[in-house]
Queue: 2 jobs
Job 1
Amino acid sequence: MRMGLTLMNTTRLRAPLCVMLLCLSCGSAAAISTLPSGGRFARQSRTSLCNGALPLHCRLKGQSYHGGIRLLPSADSRAPLSARARQAGRTGAPTMAASLSKSSATATAVYALILANLLVFVADKAALPFVRTLYLYHRGWAWWQPLSACFCHASRSHLSGNLFLLLLFGRSVEDELGWFGLLFAYCFCGVVANIVSLALLPAATVSLGASGAVFGLFAVSVLSRLSWRSLDWRRVVELTVLGEFTVCRVLSELQTAASGGVAGINHVAHLSGAASGALLVFLLRRLLGSMEDGPAAPARAKR
């Protein structure tokens, strides 16, 4: 029986069965294209094998035959794995590294913070006794309370307002600084705001709420985007919207605090939270600037 056997008209009905047997025996998914040629049908298939080469009886000088159907392995499948990986990088095809970086860029920390605040609020309304130990009591406070109080809220409206702003500005900060940057900024600004409240407010005060941390995210979200290197029209629009909102909120807090404040609202935590966010961005820029200039200094000295 000669290699390259063509399928005659009498074998047309058995072609699907042959294709199924071919796929089962060779362990591959074949894409079959049928081309008419003078009453005969020549069938070719490019295969991408999952478990190595074809069986021995199906191979002959790089070409494969099975049941009268000629299999032409694609050039990509014959190339080494490293060459295919380089080709994928040149053509822009998704690679494992690109997929991992894309999945890591997905915002998740902001939703974890929102969920943590919701769970603590539900536990508080369920009258679980441990939640009250998370409040920041200015008289006889515990070491964990400046941080744990950032996840406690007094009412549903208090929770709803803070979570709405946390979602908006938290996503913005996480897009710019990553999940660790958001978590660090939230905790840093919240703790600084509560420590300043401890120093300035009366001893009978009990502080709770994420407002100080959220005001810090206002400043971080705006100031971290102020860079002439990556300034385009979309960033200008984004900075205009976020900056206008942040400036208005900070000025409103200053005016309210100067006029005596509103009972039950910790204006000190709001303002100190915004100031700590600005301080955090300033320190990070100085640190990154020193890291960039560090390796270049010895090179200039050698000249």
Note: The domain at 108-298 is CATH 1.20.1540.10 (Rhomboid-like fold).
Job 2
Amino acid sequence: MNFEKYNIISVIIIIIFVIFLYFSVLSPNIIDRSEYVENKTYEKFENYAFTYEVTRYPSFVNVSSNMDETLVIGITNDPYNLGFGIIPQGGSGKRLISLENDEDVKAKIKIEYVGNITEIMEISNTNFVLMPNESVKIPVMIKTDPDTPIGNYTGEIDLIIIKPKYNSLEFLLWVM
């Protein structure tokens, strides 16, 4: 009977630990999106298990009529935003996010994007683990249809890099 009692207590302790781990480490609410950033911002913070680096980029595009023969199209390549300039209806644009892990630990990469620009934005790989000494280029695409409403589309692209403080915690990156 005592053996069963200890098993139940052990299971309860494990459940409490898993709940604590999930809410404190694996799914922290780390970005305040009450307002979009106007320029690139960088913030670094940590808890007892992980270091978080958050880079927030403003993103915008002006979708214009493709009927205007004097339309000047172009993509901005400013390093402090992920703007797409002016794109005609039915057109597209592409920017690249280049990442390199030059450290000896794995890093979890999360890319989140918000705003009305998400209606016409595609990012193919938004949640992955970057191995040590690995580099990757992530395409960020704007694709419009001929009937995409004309206007300004704005939002934000957030690059979240999560690194374990201890190598023994690297396995958690796969479940975050």
Note: The first strand starts at residue 41 and ends at 46.
